[in-house]
Model the fold of this input.
Amino acid sequence: QVQPVESGGGLVQAGGSLRLSCALSRPFLTTYSMGWFRQAPGKEREFVTAIRGSDGTTLYGDSVKGRFTISRDNAKNTVFLQMNSLKPEDTAVYYCAASRYWSLSGSKWIADYWGQGTQVTVSS
Done:
């Protein structure tokens, strides 16, 4: 069973930073592409970012470009989401996701396995 497990959510003031972590239950992180989605109350789930397992190619949603950075530590089987210059509209449940493939629908990455989510709240 492939299971992403998130950690690192919390409350932060606008303009601040937060780092999320996601560990994968399976070894060989380079086999999987990993990414993050988010869902705010009353809104559809939104693609945030993804990183391809084979070569580290990254993809970002328009709303987070220049502020968020995805990275990975293969030795720790973990990916990170560094979130800077946070805004109240970044408030959402953030979900880590994984896939054996790098499949895109337009400019959005498609995931197959999902974590339970971690709450990020940005106060104004």
Q: What stands out?
A: The radius of gyration is 13 Å.
